[in-house]
Amino acid sequence: MKDKVKIGLLLTLFLIVCLVIQYFSAHVFDFIILFFSLIATMEFRKLQLKSGNPAFKFVPEISCFLIFVATFVGVLCDLSAVIILIMVFGIEVVLYLSILVGSILFTKNDLENDEFRVATNLSVNEFAVFKSNNTLAVMVYPALLIFFVYLINHIQGIGLEALTDNTQGVPMGLFGIVLLFMICCLTDTFAMLFGKWIKGKKLCPSISPNKTISGACFGLVGGIVGALLTYLIFYLIFPSAFSIVYFWQFIIVGLIGSLIAQSGDIFESFLKRRAFVKDAGEFFRSHGGVLDRLDSVVFNAPFIFVCLLFMFG
Question: Domain boundaries in the chain?
Answer without folding.
Answer: 2-312
